[in-house]
Write a structure and sequence with these properties.
- Helices cover about 80% and strands about 0% of the residues.
- By secondary structure, it is mostly helical.
- The relative contact order is 0.08.
Length: about 220
């Protein structure tokens, strides 16, 4: 291979690598923006302002998903926003958004079950736990428990899988076990890119821990 060819190959390789890096950076930027916006909408807005902001964020995640149809991260966050909107909206009208979330999480698991440290398992498990069961919805506590345990296998120290499994155990009246996972959630490493989400998640952990302690103290009497 002559020098010109060597230079051409090197140039093509560098160009391809630069393009790939740019694409990855763009994906990460989209993800960071959506995560920060979700934390603001979910924790810092209320009532109609929150619902309207969720509608706008749904459009953003739909665009992210459409641009990256094989990106499990995009599908996971589309599902998180849909499920969060369903929780805020409530009522039977929210069920279609819960179903949209379920489809997105299941698709993400097919593409990459390890994406975002197993967040699709955490989110899907929580969804199965929160949604009413048959004949109204697709809720299934047994399935929820299996999915949340799978999430913990992939991310045993994570704040979200420990918190949501603790919440699940509390609802199942397994208070001692719930406290164990909530304590693990409190000790979870901070997420530098998600300070607002971490701050409010710790508030949720503390509130649920107080409920757990109340139940445990009542049993001692």
């Amino acid at each position: 291979m002559n020098l010109f060819c060597k230079l051409s190959v090197a140039t093509l390789f560098c160009s391809a690598l630069s393009l790939q890096t740019s694409v990855v950076n763009a994906q990460e930027n989209n993800l960071n923006v959506i995560q920060k916006q979700w934390a603001h909408v979910n924790y810092q807005l209320e009532d109609d302002a929150q619902l309207d902001a969720y509608k706008a964020l749904i459009k953003d995640t739909e665009a992210f998903k459409a641009a990256e149809p094989n990106n499990a991260d995009a599908l996971i966050w589309y599902g998180i926003v849909q499920s969060s909107y369903a929780g805020a909206k409530g009522g039977l009208g929210a069920l279609k958004h819960a179903e949209n979330a379920k489809d997105a999480f299941e698709q993400a698991l097919k593409i990459n079950p390890n994406a975002l440290s197993g967040s699709a398992y955490t989110s899907l498990g929580t969804l199965f736990h929160k949604v009413p069961g048959w004949p109204i919805g697709f809720g299934d506590d047994d399935k929820a428990g299996e999915l949340l345990q799978k999430a913990l296998e992939l991310n045993p120290q994570g704040i979200d899988p420990n918190y949501f499994y603790g919440e699940y155990l509390y609802d199942e009246r397994k208070y001692k076990q719930a406290k164990l996972y909530l304590e693990r959630a409190k000790q979870a490493p901070a997420r530098p890119m998600r300070p607002v989400a971490d701050e409010f998640r710790h508030h949720e952990i503390d509130m649920l821990m107080a409920k757990v302690d109340k139940k445990l103290n009542k049993k001692k009497r």
